[in-house]
Structure formats: structure tokens, C-alpha cells
Design goal:
Radius of gyration of chain A: 25 Å
Largest sheet of chain B: 7 strands, parallel
Strand content of chain B: 15-25%
Strand order of the largest sheet of chain A: 5-6-7-3-8-9
Structural class of chain A: alpha/beta
Shape of chain B: globular
Bound molecules: guanosine-5'-triphosphate, zinc ion
Largest sheet of chain A: 6 strands, mixed
Oligomer: heterodimer
Helix content of chain A: 40-55%
Structural class of chain B: alpha/beta
């Protein structure tokens, strides 16, 4: 197979396309001679070595081209802008029609309420998989008002939904800085170090207690790791929609977390039972029996109540604080 | 009938995602059978049958599991045809990380899990590289950042596969995986078909039952490390 890279030496190739090196090292071919053209290097590869690493000679160049095309796609993507996601109702578990048309736009927060098993996950799956009347709920999802290109369904690099679930852990043994840097590199951003610094700073502005870039991610408190993940998703995730599973009250500035995501033009969907969070959204979806039973915009009266609830919450926080400091819980909180 | 080969490291979630996907397919009226290949013992057959998924088990015992697999897959296909399934899924564990039960022109799935670490995609050979569909499990317990890094690492070794996240516990993504499997090409015979990649070479004296250690007892296909 002949391609645009065949006649370049490996030196040239790695110099002009730094990501090319990763392809060969991922394959276990990191010790290739640098001076010959790619085509002749591949032609000269030892049969035994190819067997060991598990690839056939004639496939190598083709796979390399696919890989390079993928890298280019990721780079040039800068994410074709999603200006709106529309969900057209299907039916609930009993087959009753849902009759709604829901528009989700960047910068807006939509809350999702309803008991477990009421159909919240399937709703999110419908969005994630761009249901076209062919999922168990019969819902249809439009992007920018039109039926999406269905190839997008399985294009994992263009996933619509980034998810911040509550029981997530870090399995990598890295410092906060190394961790974010690794993510930035895999997203092929232009300046991984700069964006890493920004994310760490934002995370610290959300978290109650500070951490340093050198803190291992596994040593972060619940609030700190949540803050780090929110800042990371806001700045680095390619997905236009962010799904959050409740933001616990402890150790994180929830209002700021939501506005950070909204400021980065994310469409925010938040499953919550907390009245303060539920009223922070512009609207909320109420789930019953596998379907959306109603959609409510946050009314002016509810907004007024939100202010009240926040004041109550601040008072409770003060009590918690006093408890922790060993004070007597008396007097005016 | 459609035949699907599913492989992946031990405990990556193969059984879990096959169950969820088969349930979603059955709900759509597609009948599914499963063949489980394992070495010593397996409780998976009972697990499948409890969910109403007909299953058969093949235990390789002291044979290389993958060689055992190739010598039996034709008969398995016949069982599937006789049983009248729309879809037959073979599940085998990638025990040496080098072998791949994938067959040319037969839909090939590799299952890997997020918990196994970001270096894992580089350590799995043709089983991952030559898969048509890569299923990633256990995304529910790692961060979004790790999920994205993991996908990137898989892309580096397999640039053309469809990569899909399926949760083996909740089944999320199972419906969508099922739809992909339904679109696989039909296979009515494996006669003359080729494996996508050769199995690891075998047949040294130890394959033949030798137990003594030492150069004098090593014959056949022997390769030595360079320890410098
Ligand atoms: N949290 C979580 N656990 C999962 C997921 N998928 C599978 N598991 C769990 O992982 C464990 C291993 O899953 P199995 O389906 O038995 O894995 P397998 O690949 O079939 O294993 P072998 O057949 O023994 O090689 C089980 O305890 C599953 O419940 C997932 O998406 N999330
Ligand atoms: Zn093997
Ligand atoms: Zn041997």
C-alpha cells in the first residue's frame, strides 16, 4: 500500500507529526531505525517481530493511515457546534404517549427528578444514542433541529454526553497535574500545560479545601475530586452535554460548579433530589412509569423560594461548622 | 444465522454484557444462543440459562484454550443452526493476551474494562487490534477523564473499530450493542474460513507434558530471553 507517509523517513515523520510516534510505541515497535523511509522500514520488519506484536505487514501502513486520519479529525474537530438538542416524546412503560418537545441549549441547566426506576437512565441513553424512534421509549432526538447523521451514533470520539457520576474513582496512580495533563494530551489540545494549570485553578476555586498540583488524585477528598472532575469536564471534555448525578453539599461550591459548566457552553443535565439544586435549573423534568410525566420551568415564585432555601442552607452550614469547631449550638445561627 | 465472537481478558465483563445484550435482543424478538469457552470450570452456562439464554460450555482442560476453540467452533456453529437461533455468540477468555478467536468475515467483538488501566490496550494483541467492535465496560466506576483517555489508547491500536461503552450491571448500551450485532453478516458455514491472525506458536517439549526444567529437556519451539 502506498500513502502520503510512505516516502518520509521516520525522523521526518516523527518531527512533523509527533503523534505518529505513539502509534508505533503502542504497537510495541518503538525501536525502529529512524533513517529510512516508512515504506522500506515496514518492508524490512522482521517476520518474527510482526508475529510477536500481532500485526500483519500488509495491514500496518493502512492502519497507520487510519490512525493519522483519526488524529487529524480530532484536532480539526474543535467540535462542530451543537446549538441545540431536541427531544421529541415517545411513550412511557404502559404505552401512554408523552407528548412533549424539549429543547436543550448550551449554558442551560435542566434538572431531572423522579424515583429510581422511573426512566431517568433510559432518557439519558436516548440522548446519548440519538434515538430515532427505535429505542424502547420511541423517543426521537434531533441535533440543531434536524435528524443527525446516524454514523454519529457510534462515533465514540463525538460522544454527546459526558458523565459525572457519584461513585466514580480514580484508578490511575498519578498526581492531579499529571492526571489532567494526560487527559489534555489525549484530547490533542494545543497547549496541554496551560489548560492543565487553568483546570487545577478552577477546581481549587470550587473545592472547600485547597490541594496542590502534586497531590495524588487518590488522596483527594470527595469534594476535591468532584471539583477536579467538574473543572476537567468543563474545559476538556469534547461532549456538549454534561450529565451530573447530584452534587453533594459537602465541600464544593455547587452554584459555582454549575455556572462554570454553563459558562463553558455545556448543556447541563442534573439528576437530583435536592430542592436547592432542582430550583437552580431553568427547568425540570419529572419522571414517572418510564416516561416524562411533566416539564416545569422554574417559576418566579420558585426562584424566590430558592433564595430562602439558600439562606436556610447557609444557616445549617454555619451550624455544621460550629459543631466541627466544638462550639455550643446555642444562640442565633 | 449470525455468528459473533466475543473475547476479552478474564473478568472484563464479557458474560455481563452478553447477558444484557441478549436480553435486549430477545425483547425485540431475536433468539440468541451462547457458547462459552473456558479452561477449567465455568458457572456461566447456568448463569445464561437462568436468564433464558440457551448455552453450551466447552472446557479445554490441559489443551491451549484457543487451539481447543478453533477445533470446536464449526460444531458449535452447527449446534446454533440446528437450534434455529438468529444469533450465536461465542464467548472466550483471552488468556495469554496474544490469541484472538476472531475469524475473517465473522463479526468480532473485544471486551475491555476501564479498571484494567490505561496501558492495557497496548498489552492486548490481535484480540483487540483485529476486533470490529470494542466494548468498554465498568465506565460507571471511573472518572470521565479516564474514560476518554482509555478510548484514546484503544484508538491507537485499533483505528477502525466501532468503540462502544456498555455497562454490564445496568445494561446501559446493551440495546445499542444488540443493534450492531443484528447487522453482522450471516454465516452458514465456517468451512475454509480463516482466523484473522495466527494463534501463538506452540509445541515445545512442555506442551507435550515435559515437567523437568533445564536446557536438556527443552525441545521444539523454544525462544530465549536476552538478559544482557
Ligand atoms: N461496576 C461494573 N461492574 C461490572 C460491569 N461489567 C461487569 N461487571 C462486573 O465485573 C465482574 C466480571 O464480569 P463477568 O461478566 O463475569 O466477566 P467475564 O469477562 O465474563 O469473566 P470470565 O468469563 O471469568 O473471564 C462481575 O462481578 C460483573 O458484575 C460494569 O459495567 N460495571
Ligand atoms: Zn492462548
Ligand atoms: Zn509448549
Amino acid at each position: 500500500m502506498i500513502n502520503q507517509y510512505s516516502d518520509m523517513t521516520l525522523d521526518q515523520l516523527f518531527c512533523e507529526h509527533p503523534h505518529a510516534r505513539e502509534f508505533f510505541s503502542a504497537l510495541g515497535l518503538s525501536a525502529l531505525p529512524a533513517g529510512q523511509t516508512l515504506a522500506s522500514t515496514v518492508a524490512a520488519l522482521d517476520e518474527e517481530l510482526l508475529l510477536d506484536v500481532g500485526i500483519e505487514r500488509q495491514e500496518l501502513l493502512g492502519q497507520f493511515c487510519d490512525y493519522m486520519a483519526g488524529v487529524e479529525r480530532l484536532r480539526s474537530q474543535q467540535q462542530a457546534l451543537v446549538a441545540s438538542v431536541t427531544v421529541l416524546g415517545g411513550h412511557d412503560k404502559s404505552g401512554n404517549p408523552e407528548n412533549f418537545r424539549l429543547e436543550l441549549r448550551p449554558g442551560e441547566v435542566t434538572c431531572i427528578v423522579g424515583p429510581t426506576g422511573s426512566g431517568k437512565s433510559r432518557f439519558l441513553a436516548d440522548i446519548e444514542w440519538l434515538a430515532q424512534g427505535d429505542s424502547p421509549t420511541g423517543r426521537t432526538v434531533l441535533i440543531n433541529g434536524a435528524a443527525p447523521d446516524l454514523a454519529r451514533r457510534y462515533a465514540v470520539e463525538q460522544k454527546l454526553v459526558a458523565q459525572l457520576s457519584q461513585n466514580m474513582n480514580f484508578v490511575m496512580d498519578l498526581s492531579a497535574e499529571e492526571f489532567i495533563q494526560l487527559h489534555a494530551e489525549s484530547r490533542m489540545v494545543a497547549d496541554p500545560a496551560a489548560i492543565t494549570a487553568t483546570i487545577l485553578e478552577l477546581a481549587n476555586s470550587l473545592a472547600g479545601e485547597q490541594f496542590t498540583p502534586a497531590t495524588p488524585v487518590t488522596a483527594l477528598s470527595g469534594g476535591q475530586s468532584r471539583a477536579l472532575m467538574i473543572a476537567d469536564v468543563a474545559c476538556l471534555s469534547s461532549s456538549p452535554i454534561v450529565l451530573i448525578d447530584e452534587i453533594e453539599n459537602a465541600g464544593i461550591d455547587r452554584k459555582r460548579a454549575l455556572s462554570l459548566l454553563a459558562d463553558q457552553d455545556k448543556i447541563v443535565l442534573m439528576a437530583t433530589h435536592d430542592p436547592i439544586l432542582a430550583l437552580m435549573g431553568q427547568q425540570r423534568l419529572i419522571f414517572k412509569n418510564g416516561g416524562v410525566s411533566s416539564i416545569r420551568s422554574t417559576s418566579p415564585a420558585e426562584r424566590a423560594n430558592l433564595t430562602l432555601f439558600e439562606a436556610m442552607d447557609a444557616r445549617l452550614t454555619a451550624v455544621r461548622h460550629a459543631l466541627r469547631n466544638g462550639e455550643e449550638i446555642a444562640g442565633n445561627f | 444465522m449470525r455468528l459473533i465472537t466475543v473475547a476479552g481478558p478474564p473478568s472484563s465483563g464479557k458474560t455481563a454484557i452478553i447477558c444484557k445484550t441478549a436480553e435486549a435482543l430477545q425483547a425485540d424478538g431475536v433468539s440468541v444462543g451462547v457458547i462459552k469457552f473456558d479452561c477449567l470450570s465455568s458457572g456461566d452456562q447456568a448463569l445464561y440459562e437462568r436468564r433464558g439464554i440457551p448455552a453450551r460450555t466447552g472446557l479445554s482442560g490441559n489443551l491451549c484454550p484457543d487451539h481447543f476453540y478453533v477445533s470446536n467452533i464449526e460444531e458449535c456453529l452447527d449446534w446454533g443452526l440446528q437450534s434455529g437461533f438468529d444469533l450465536l455468540i461465542s464467548e472466550s477468555a483471552g488468556l495469554c493476551n496474544r490469541c484472538a478467536p476472531h475469524i475473517k468475515d465473522v463479526c468480532a467483538v473485544c471486551v475491555v474494562d476501564n479498571l484494567s488501566g490505561v496501558e492495557t490496550p497496548r498489552k492486548i494483541g490481535p484480540m483487540l487490534k483485529m476486533a470490529d467492535i470494542v466494548v468498554i465496560t465498568k465506565g460507571d466506576i471511573v472518572s470521565q477523564a479516564e474514560r476518554e483517555v482509555f478510548v484514546h489508547r484503544i484508538r491507537q491500536v485499533n483505528s477502525s473499530a466501532v468503540i462502544i461503552h456498555v455497562n454490564g450491571l445496568t445494561g446501559q448500551g446493551g440495546h445499542e450493542l444488540g443493534r450492531l450485532l443484528r447487522d453482522a453478516a450471516a454465516v452458514d458455514s465456517l468451512q475454509g474460513k480463516l482466523l484473522r491472525f495466527s494463534m501463538p506458536a506452540a509445541l515445545c517439549s512442555y506442551c507435550l507434558g515435559q515437567r523437568r526444567i533445564g536446557a536438556d529437556f527443552q525441545m521444539g519451539n523454544v525462544k530465549k530471553m536476552e538478559l544482557g
